[in-house]
Amino acid sequence: MLSILGLALVCTVPFHTAAAEESPLAEQNRYNVLMICIDDLRNELGCYGVEEVSSPNIDRLADSSITFSNHYVQVPTCGASRYALLTGRRPSSSKGMSNNAFHNLGKGKSKDLSLSLPENFKRSDYTTVTIGKVSHTPDSKNYRYNGSGPGTPEIPNAWTEMDMPYGPWKYGWGCFFAYDKGKHREDKSGYRPVMEFPDVKDNELPDGQNCEHALKKLEQLKKQKKPFFLAVGFYKPHLPFVAPKKYRDIYNDVDVKDSAVVKRGNTAYAHRSGEFYGYHMPNKPLTAEDRIQTKKAYYACVSYTDALVGRLLDKLKELDLEKNTIVVLWSDHGWFLGEHAIWGKHSPLERSVQSPLMIRVPGKAGGMTSAVVETLDVYPTLLDLCQLSDTQTAFPLGGSSLTPVLDKPEHAGKNAAISYWGKSRSVRSGQYRLIATRQGKNGWTKRELYDHSQDPEETHNLISKKPEVAERLLKLLDADAPILIK
Predict the structure, then answer these.
(1) Which of 28, 33, 258, 455 is the most buried (most CB within 10 A)?
(2) What does UniProt give as the signal peptide span (predicted)?
(3) How far is CA 126 from each of CA 155, 159, 427, rounded to the nearest angstrom?
(4) Catalytic residue at 136?
């Protein structure tokens, strides 16, 4: 059975055949993969035109990558978004809509037998390694926020190695919600500031420790004969905003502007920022000065993560791995920085479902593309580039290979990208975004239509002024399957 990639895969050898036994798969696969997952990173980087943000290393990666300005995640929450990335399945089919999505794999009523992306690589004779937050849990193991739990793999059969240092935080979620010197949000101390910038070195905080570990792992992987799939997940800029002081100091004299729209509009899809206001802060709601300081705190965490990405890129070059390693940088969703009075994700509005995506392929030129693409497209793209097969998957993949866009950045991409949040659906097609909620026999309600060429902050609902556009996009929501890239 052919893959649904939209084109036949080049030199694909089926698993468990005589041909595969005679010739090691490792000799047929062309590339290693370094996949960098960043939590809560919106398109607020120098390479996306935001000059006040210091992100020289990610900008450097963007220069040599195809950088997607219109990449949209499937669900604006961490677990479900990563589930779509790593299973390649559309949430309406997998039912992976929440942070508990990975609990469905191979068990439960859903009986989701999806073959995950790393397991596909592992079966293809790759060494697969995860460090940090790649699936939903910070160490890819099933533990609760308080550290209890079985510690079983969150994705069964996926990783050759699941390894990361815990340091004084002792377990994964402690590292994720970390403050300086072993404190964290779940340690029962009541210490929960929204931001903290200790005067420490990069590797004295969890993301820096994970980076150090990944650098050593790259040295080990370089020595082996098998290709590798290394996934490194950085926690910041997720809450709480914690980074070494030097990264906050970058913004001391930077004129960071308040968001263009700071009051909640008429949208039905705003929320009260419960996750954000669960941390301690001086005022609720934030004052104008609070908003500026909070944006600077977020940017400081972006710059910290950027420095760590730079170290990974430098290590690839030092080890002479650039020439045969694909680099993917992806974020699980965007994040509101005060627009519509929202601080956080968890909304089907544009700011929440749009996030950075960069793919660097050895030998291919870099460039920015406005092609509309989805997180679902990463899985088939990597299979395509690395000459693997998807015929072992129990379900068809929901995305499409992006190789036509990687070859031709001016390619328009998909006709639409669909995102999911509860009973609501959100579709971006061309310049328009339509959001609507399915209400049983009442069909699609709470309809909102925005023209991003004129209204990027989504303040003017055009649902009554452009009914023909709304009807066209509602048909896409009903079909629930964007046209594949050709």
Answers:
(1) 33
(2) 1-19
(3) 16, 10, 36
(4) yes
**What domains, with CATH codes, occur in the chain?**
29-413 (3.40.720.10)
Residue 8: per-residue pLDDT:
29
* Residue among 37, 47, 78, 175 flagged as catalytic: 78
What is the CA angle 46-259-373, rounded to 5?
55
Residue of 162, 159, 154 whose CA lies nearest to 106? 154
In single-letter form, the type of residue at position 25 comes to L
Strands 357-360 and 66-72: what pairing?
antiparallel
Q: What are phi and psi of 220, to 5 degrees?
A: -70, -40
Please report the beta strands in 338-412, taking only residues with DSSP state E, as ranges in sequence order: 343-344, 357-360, 367-374
Q: Which of 136, 213, 346, 411 is catalytic?
A: 136
Cis status of the peptide bond prior to 237, with omega within 30 of 0 = yes
434-450 as b/e, with b when 16 or more CB fall inside 10 Å?
bbbbeeeeeebeebbbb
pTM, two decimals, is 0.93
* 171, amino acid identity: Y
* Of 356, 320, 294, the residue nearest 37 (C-alpha): 356
Q: Which residues pair with 357 in a beta bridge?
A: 68, 330
What whole-number distance in Å separates Cα of residue 332 and Cα of residue 375?
8
- 288-318 and 56-63 helices, crossing angle to 10°: 50
What stretch of H or E contains 426? strand 424-429
Mean pLDDT by 10 residues, the chain (486 residues): 30 30 50 98 97 98 98 98 96 90 69 82 95 97 94 94 95 98 96 98 98 98 95 98 98 95 92 96 92 98 98 98 97 97 97 98 96 97 89 77 96 96 96 94 92 96 97 95 85
254: nearest Cα among 214, 295, 313: 295
